[in-house]
Amino acid sequence: MTVTSLDSESQLREMYPTSRDILNELHSEGAHVRHEVNATKLERYLFHNDGNDPVKFNRVVFNFPHYVAGGGVGNKDKCNKIHRHRQLLLNFFTSASQVLAHDGQIWVTLCAGQEETSLETKTRSAGDTWQIVHCAAAAKLLLQDAHDCPVDALADLGYYSVGYQSRDKAFWIGNGITNVFCHEATDHKPCFSIQWTRGISFWVTDEQLFTEDLLLDIIRKHFLIKTMTVSISLLDEYRCVKSGRKSVTYRFNILSFSLALFRDRVNTLVETHLDH
Fold first, then answer.
1. Angle, in degrees to the nearest 10, between helices 212-222 and 263-273
2. Whole-model pTM?
């Protein structure tokens, strides 16, 4: 087991009074303890097993991540920007996926209200969440499982929170949710799939030949049935008075139970195959 901290050992001992005993226990149990490790740049560090061979991890755990603007705990003048938290998650997932074993898992626990999944009890609009599933999808990771965080068990092990509003004050960890991510693969099914909606408009050159079934067949050639589910619906149609030509606008929904569909990936598919 490898345990890391962003802080130096001296900073850790100063911030967390119980850290000395915890570090001693980790060392006595044979854990590899490393300090000043940036979780968004894990691929830059050399991690080895007891035989000094490079390793990839079966599990990477990040409990209650949060972005701390310039200065860290005690800096009250910095705003808590939600897009910074999303960027932190995105950078972490991108990095962690590179040191994760093929069948490994990434466990990330968020506080209540930060989730967008169905387990969230403190529901908010999608724009007010950290959008963790979308951030992970950008690193081609699927949400494999999600469950309530065992906060009582963590407390028994000596865990306590600090950093509420960038102050030396505990934050609420009750009702937190632990999200389990894995590499996308045909045999990995997500418990929370991302659905995207896109619109396309075009002129119908042959009204006798054109049908919705034909359009759906064309779309499915590029959005493969084995990996994606696509449905379409007519939004609008228009006929030019002068030329008599007909144009149509369709909305199509894209869903996958084996691929991590992130925004850029979907946009590339649409622009490459349907915008011409």
1. 120
2. 0.82
